[in-house]
Design brief:
The complex is a heterodimer of chains A (244) and B (476). Chain A is an alpha/beta fold and 244 residues long. Chain A contains eight helices and nine strands. A nine-stranded mixed β-sheet of chain A has the order 3-2-1-4-9-8-5-6-7, sandwiched between helices. Chain B contains 16 helices and three strands. Chain B is globular, with a radius of gyration of 22 Å. Chain B starts with 25 loop residues before the first strand and ends in a 10-residue tail after the last helix. Classes of the chains: A alpha/beta (244), B mainly alpha (476).
């Protein structure tokens, strides 16, 4: 149980979002934090929506919980009525200490997974998610790195070998791990292009910057363009990160 | 903040067989938690809370009342506003304590029903709902005056007075808009309030300097208590409507983040901010014209003050600001009124149907119509002063009872009552707050008092008929 990574699965439960096919199997080895949420307009008190919709939402979550449990996952669940879905997701990640968030999309059996390795920051959490979710099944894992112009082959080698070692230590069969390096490409496009040949993607969340403010987080953009499920590994929360 | 259990168990049934909804298990900084895994997210921050309070209040005291108040009390109307602000502060402090102990939607109604029982709660809750309607109607009539002034400014001669028509139009539009689900209303409210404060600060700074003769003009010499002392108090009673906004913050207490900190700051802060603005406004306005002429200008006196100080651009700026301010006040009040309906129906004092949420837009259409419909009828009366006073009356009853509820709760000291903010100077301060609230009512017109009392009696009879068996009071 301790090495099961906590993965958040957020669903807009009353707006028809459901658990897509294949996802329960994908997360069979994870600790699933199932978040059903319902976003209501500002003129409605959250309690008002609760009075009316709680029963229906609970029934659906019961079903999903069963599906995940039957696949082998451990499940914890929340139902939240909110004005601000993003705040709810962020808070749940924080409160349940989730390593990653799943952007769900239907999938078949997952035979191979693309793991985007960006740099040394957050690599520990990335490794824990990959090992926890894919370690016990015979999925082939491809570590994928898009190099920057000033990065030497040596740097890249150290980074990826370090990751392979780490995954090995966490119980992943190293013979199933491949590495791939790409140069002279925009990381985002490169990841999306490469992802097409894979069944699922694992990638890290970047720090918010002006670019991400305008175009959205890279992980969201990948999730929009890639047809399968994406696991977005969360940054470690700084202790003083509190709004207002 | 540690989790704070709200250990109140409502019981009983109303005539329709509905029981009050269950109380939450815990209240945290970010959520209200029900049944362990159902949460209501808190999404309004300190800025949002301040914007609700200031945005509701700033419309009336600055854009509708200066002419009326100066007409009644002369330059001493500044004192009237200061008295209003003081009473509001005396109530805002105890309200803050109650709100941090019970950060739940419904505000004053919730505190009183849990502290003093269902009968008081019903009177206050129905009174709050109706009081907010009277207040919204008052803001809408004010909006009508400003919109008419825009026509006058454009030189469009109308054969009839468009004030009431415009008020009705905007009232209907606001109701439809809120049912149709306008996105980002809260953000818009924050921006509107920010713009208003900037415009007013610039305008009033200029006005104050001018009043002290910095720009070489002689201001009108003014005797302070030109109308005597008694009108200062009656005017305070009239203009108290300008201070109703801080209670609106409490009606969304269930949605405020970190309620223990943000609720007191938002309520007390908004009262302090608007009090300063009001007092300075009246000072500038009366210095520019003198009370007599100011009084003749009526509801849109501030436009003339701005024209006098800064010419046409000033008049246009204040017209725009007045439209924005009265609009945002009316909007905030309609939304609060619908929150009040929700709180009442949650507790089975009104049919559960009243807080039903519309499937298409996700908005509480019944509650919004229940607020919007009667407002239109009230706007149609066009009685600015009467509407304002009845709204004040109903709120003052609630304010006084909130202070009493605080004293009752502190004396009983039930286990669940653990506010994170405690009012200083107990029991004197809440005691004075209660006396001042009830006392101010004595200075109102008999007609307003009469209407207010009838509303209270009807509320009580409704409770006896519809929900006599419902108990809401907390454990002793």
């Amino acid at each position: 149980m301790t090495d099961r990574p906590s993965i958040l699965v957020p669903l807009r439960v009353l707006e028809g979002e459901s658990v897509p096919e294949g996802v329960p199997e994908l997360l069979a080895n994870a600790h699933v934090v199932l978040l059903g949420y319902h976003v209501i307009p500002e003129q409605t008190a959250p309690g008002q929506a609760q009075m009316q919709f709680e029963e229906r939402a609970t029934t659906r979550l019961d079903d999903y919980e069963t599906i995940f449990e039957e696949a082998g996952a451990t499940v914890e669940r929340r139902l939240v009525f909110t004005h601000d879905g993003q705040k709810t997701i962020d808070r749940t990640i924080h409160e349940h200490d989730c390593l990653a968030v799943l952007v769900p999309d239907a999938t078949g059996a997952v035979d191979d997974v693309l793991v985007a390795v960006r740099g040394t920051v957050g690599i520990d959490r990335l490794a824990r998610v990959v090992a926890g979710v894919f370690g016990a099944v015979d999925t082939s894992v491809t570590l994928y790195h898009v190099a920057e112009a000033d990065e030497t082959d040596e740097d890249i080698g150290t980074l990826l070998e370090g990751m392979v070692d780490r995954l090995g230590n966490l119980g992943v069969d190293e013979s199933r791990i491949e590495t791939r390096v790409e140069r002279d490409q925009r990381p985002l496009d490169a990841i999306v292009d490469a992802a097409e040949a894979f069944d699922a993607v694992v990638m890290g969340e970047t720090d918010p910057s002006l670019v991400t403010f305008v175009f959205g987080m890279p992980a969201d953009q990948v999730a929009d363009r890639f047809l399968g499920p994406v696991l977005v590994v969360q940054r470690e929360l700084a202790l003083n990160e509190e709004d207002e | 903040m540690a989790e704070q259990p709200v250990d109140v168990e409502p019981g009983g049934q109303n005539v329709a067989g509905e029981a009050p909804a269950a109380e939450p298990e815990a209240v945290t900084d970010d959520t209200t938690v029900h049944d362990d895994d159902v949460e209501l997210e808190r999404t309004i921050g300190l800025v949002g809370g301040l914007a609700i309070g200031i945005g509701t209040m700033i419309g009336a005291g600055i854009f509708v009342f200066p002419g009326l108040a100066a007409n009644n009390a002369g330059l001493a109307a500044t004192v009237s506003f200061a008295i209003g602000g003081l009473i509001a502060l005396l109530v805002a402090l105890p309200t803050s304590e109650l709100a941090t102990a019970m950060p739940r939607s419904g505000g004053g109604y919730y505190f009183i029903s849990r502290g003093m029982g269902t009968a008081y709660g019903a009177i206050v809750g129905l009174g709050l709902w109706l009081g907010l309607m009277f207040a919204s109607a008052f803001y809408l009539v004010g909006l009508g005056h400003y919109a008419s002034a825009v026509f006058a400014e454009l030189g469009v001669g109308l054969p009839f007075s468009p004030v009431i028509g415009i008020g009705l139009l905007f009232g209907a539009a606001l109701t439809v808009l809120s049912i149709g689900g306008t996105e980002n209303t809260a953000k818009l409210q924050n921006i509107v309030v920010g713009v208003l404060l900037v415009v007013l600060t610039a305008f009033l700074s200029y006005g104050v300097l001018d009043a002290f003769g910095v720009f070489g003009r002689t201001s009108v010499p003014e005797q302070f208590f030109s109308r005597g002392y008694f009108p200062v108090l009656t005017t305070a009673a009239l203009v108290f409507t300008s201070y109703l906004g801080f209670a609106q913050v409490a009606t969304v207490a269930g949605e405020i983040k970190r309620p223990g900190r943000n609720l007191p700051l938002a309520m007390v802060g908004s009262v302090l901010v608007v009090t300063v603005f009001y007092v300075v406004t009246i000072f500038v306005a009366t210095s520019a014209f003198g009370a007599d002429r100011l009084g003749q200008f009526g509801e849109t006196a501030m436009v003339e003050v701005a024209r006098n100080l800064l010419g046409l651009p000033g008049a246009v700026a204040i017209l725009g600001a007045g439209l924005l301010a009265t609009f945002s006040s009316a909007n905030a009040s309609i939304l609060s009124a619908s929150r009040a309906v929700y709180a009442l129906s949650r507790d089975a004092l009104l049919p559960r149907k009243a807080s039903e949420v519309n499937l298409r837009y996700g908005t509480p259409h019944v509650a919004l119509l229940a607020a919007g419909g009667p407002i239109l009828a009230l706007v149609a009366t066009g009685q600015v002063e009467l509407l304002a006073e009845v709204a004040s009356f109903l709120h003052l009853i609630m304010y006084g009872l909130m202070c009493v509820a605080l004293i009752v709760l502190r004396r009983r000291n039930p286990e669940w009552y653990s506010p994170s903010y405690r009012v200083p100077g107990y029991p004197v301060l809440p005691g004075v707050g209660a006396l001042a609230s009830f006392g101010l009512i004595a200075f109102m017109q008999p007609a307003s008092i009469g209407i207010g009392i009838v509303i209270m009696i009807v509320s009580f009879l409704w409770y006896r008929y519809y929900a006599a068996d419902v108990t809401l009071k907390g454990d002793i």
